[in-house]
Every structure is written in C-alpha cells, then in structure tokens.
Amino acid sequence: MSVSKPIRLALLGCGTVGTEVVRLLHHQADDLTARIGAPLEIVGVAVRRLGRERGDLPIKENLFTTDALGLVKRDDVDVVVEVVGGIEPARTWLVEALRGGKSVITANKALLAEDGAALHDAAAEGGADLYYEASVAGAIPLLRPLRESLHGDRVTRVTGIVNGTTNFILSSMDASGAGFSEALEEATELGYAEADPTADVEGFDAAAKAAILASLAFHTRVTAADVFREGMTGVTAGDMASAQEMGCTIKLLCIAERGPDEAGVESVSVRVHPAMIPRSHPLAGVGDAFNAVFVEAEAAGQLMFYGRGAGGTPTASAVLGDIVAAARNRLSGTRAPSESNYAHLPIRPIGAAVTRYHINLDVDDRPGVLATVAGVFARHEVSIATVRQSGREEDAKLVIVTHGAPDANLAATVDSLSQLEMVRSIASVLRVEGGV
Ligand SMILES: NC(=O)c1ccc[n+]([C@@H]2O[C@H](COP(=O)([O-])OP(=O)(O)OC[C@H]3O[C@@H](n4cnc5c(N)ncnc54)[C@H](OP(=O)(O)O)[C@@H]3O)[C@@H](O)[C@H]2O)c1
Questions:
Q1: Cβ(309) – ligand 1 distance below 6 Å
Q2: Belongs to which family (predicted)?
Q3: Among 2, 109, 121, 280, which residue's beta carbon has the most beta carbons within 10 A?
Q4: Strands in 145-219 per DSSP E
Q5: Residue 232 exposure: Cα atoms within 13 Å on the Cβ side
Q6: Is the pTM of this model over 0.85?
Q7: Helix and strand element counts for the chain (H, E)
Q8: Per-residue pLDDT tens for 73-97?
Q9: Which of 5, 60, 102, 209 is catalytic?
Q10: Quick check: CB of 16 below 6 Å from ligand 1?
C-alpha cells in the first residue's frame, strides 16, 4: 500500500468534543491511515486558556495556541476542525479557512443555523469542502443520508427528537409522574442538563438543528429565525397524565414538512414544540437522553435514525467520519457535494401550518356547555375529532382533540374558549402529532 504525505489538521477547540477527537485520532491512527491512504497529523490546537488541565491527552504541549485565526491562516493546514461553538469568532475563522480552499469540519449548529449561508458561500468561493455531520444528533449518521443517499428521492417530512436533555426530562416525567422542576433537577444532577438549561428547555438548540435538517431535506435555505419555537417548560405533570389517559406521551419535537399551503403554493413549515404522540409512534419509545429522527420520503417511505445525540465520544465519531471524507477528497482531488438550495421554497408561518390540538377544559356542570363549546370550534372552522366528558360538579371536564386545522384557527379557538363564562379554566393545551 502506498501512503501519501500527511493530511494536516488544525483543531479549533479542545473541550468535551475536541479532546475526544484528539483521542480517537491517536487511538485509530493506523486504521485511519489505511482507510484514507495518508496519515492525519494535528499541526495546531486553538484553545481559550493555554494552562487548562486537559488530562493525559496524546498531543504535544507546544501545539496549543490561543491564536485560532493565525492557525487557520497557516499554509501547512489542509483541514480545519472547529469544535468551539458560538457565532463569532467561529464564523470569521471558518470563512477565512474555506475561502482559502481549506476543508472545514464543524459541529457548530448555532452558526450553521444562524448564518450557514456565509459558510456555504465561502466554500463555493474557495472550492472547499464543508462537512457538519456532528452539528445535528451527535453520533447519528443523519446529514449524509439527507445530503447524499436521499438525493434521488423527495423528502416530505422530518420529525425528530434532537435534544437529549429535554428528552431525558420528559421521559422521566412520563415514567415517574414528576413535575418539570423535579425532572430538571434530576437531569442536572446526572449531568444531562447544563447549569443554564435555557438553550435546551426553551427549544433554541432544537430549533437550530431543525433549520439545518430542513435546509438539507428541502433544498432551501432555512435559518433559526424561520423556525417556530416553543419550549417545554410549560409541560406539567397534569399534561403528562392527560396524555397518558389518551394512550400517549409528550415529546419535544422538531417538525419540518413541505407541501402546498392553503393557496396551493408549495412551501416549508418548520417548528419545534412539545407534542402529544401516541405510544405506537416510533418516536414515543425513544427514552432517556437518546435522539431519533423519523424521515418520510416519497419513494423510500419511512426511515428512522436513532442513537446518542450528544457526548464527547459519540460526537467525535461523527467528526472523525467527516475528517476521513474530507481527507479522501483532498487526496483524490474531488469535492464534497456542495450546498443544494435550488428549490427556494417559501417558509410558511406557524399560523398557516396545519396542526392538531388536545384541549383540556374545566367547565361548569350544566346543560348546554358541550353545545356552546362545540359552537366555538365551528365558528373558527375547526373540526372536532373526539370529545370526552368526565367528572361532576367541581370536577367537570371536557377533553377535546381536534382534526387538523391552521394553527392560527386553533389558537383563536382557545382564546375564545378562555372568554366563555362556563369554562372555569383551560387546564392544558397541547399540539398533537400522529394518529391520536
Ligand atoms: N458536547 C456535546 O455533546 C456536543 C454535541 C454536538 C455538538 N456539539 C458542538 O460542538 C462544539 C463544541 O462543544 P463542546 O461541548 O466541546 O464545548 P466545550 O467543552 O465548551 O469546549 C469549547 C472549546 O473551545 C475553546 N474555545 C472557546 N473560546 C475560544 C476562543 N475564542 N479561541 C480558541 N478556543 C476557544 C475552549 O478552550 P478552553 O479549553 O481553553 O476553555 C474549549 O477547548 C459546539 O459547537 C457544540 O454545539 C457539542
């Protein structure tokens, strides 16, 4: 076997993911060399704090620098691996690398979702590869299937659990009947939630991933700002109990779909919110901090991707896969598939997205309540799928599940219901996915 001269890597970031990238590169060096046809060599590692304790990393101390931009600009760098995160200065580094013809591998979902265009444009300008498998769902091979394997098909819908922290919290609420705060506390103690869990529980992390998935699935640039986002902090133990009574559970879902809007214009809807799904749905059984993504395509039908969505080693696995692909391309003089955004589909606002609601009302126990409530739904052109009445007097309840309707009509229905004197309170409102 002939082995070419080394492919030289600049590693930006050596934290949770970066240290595992270094370890895997070291432990699998011989196999990687055989697979690529050239050895991989780290020529520099940019970090924020030079003196930080990094355990027994198999890398020379003198390779560390705080000058990431200087490292990126070096002539002896072929591939830049960015595992720092955040918008700036990461964008400046990566644009510089790509324009200079260097291959870039990044796990930075925030940057890709906010300004992926800057990276794709720079890659086109520099004739460089841009890979980002680790940015969505950690170890799960998902972006390459969307970007390559499914390119002969037409993807119609992507539904995913793409945030492990919130999945752990909701799975724990489902299993134990705990409330949100209690389950969050448990997640924090076990290291599944960060000290500031806002990005996870408010759905920002999932929204960034939804934008990346939708862009790839629908050949259209979708940014985080295009994604409707509702976090899961409002999901109560009562909501979970309601879901369980219906044979369902609650998951924080990212949903990206394409189809005609009311005027018949093909468009894209992308949203992140908690939703009730039946126990029979393939995503209902995804427990703990696991991720899973359900892809529907016209010819392929239904596909399910499942695995670890975060963690240093699983995420490093995805980064290494991209490094191998980029290194092979450099050796053979070929390129990764470039961005495909030819469809330019318009984004449908949440109000025009067709959703279904599950509404739990505390109502007065007297004749005519059901007819009045049903009248409110009819007035807003929302059709009712099922109604369940239970309890007497103070405990009188109505649980209503609708058919699909524009989200704006459903929201207006809930607003009108809240103004009815016979509705004592709206105990819960949840969107519903799957055949409930
Ligand atoms: N952790 C996961 O499970 C996971 C999963 C999927 C994707 N990701 C993505 O991977 C990326 C890295 O995540 P992580 O968890 O590894 O982060 P992390 O543990 O916080 O590590 C960040 C690294 O970046 C370095 N850094 C920060 N600012 C810098 C600057 N201005 N110049 C040079 N280096 C700088 C830090 O240096 P010091 O070491 O000196 O502080 C540290 O080594 C993020 O984009 C994240 O969204 C992470």
A1: no
A2: Belongs to the homoserine dehydrogenase family.
A3: 109
A4: 155-161
A5: 37
A6: yes
A7: 14, 17
A8: 999 999 999 999 999 999 999 999 9
A9: 209
A10: yes
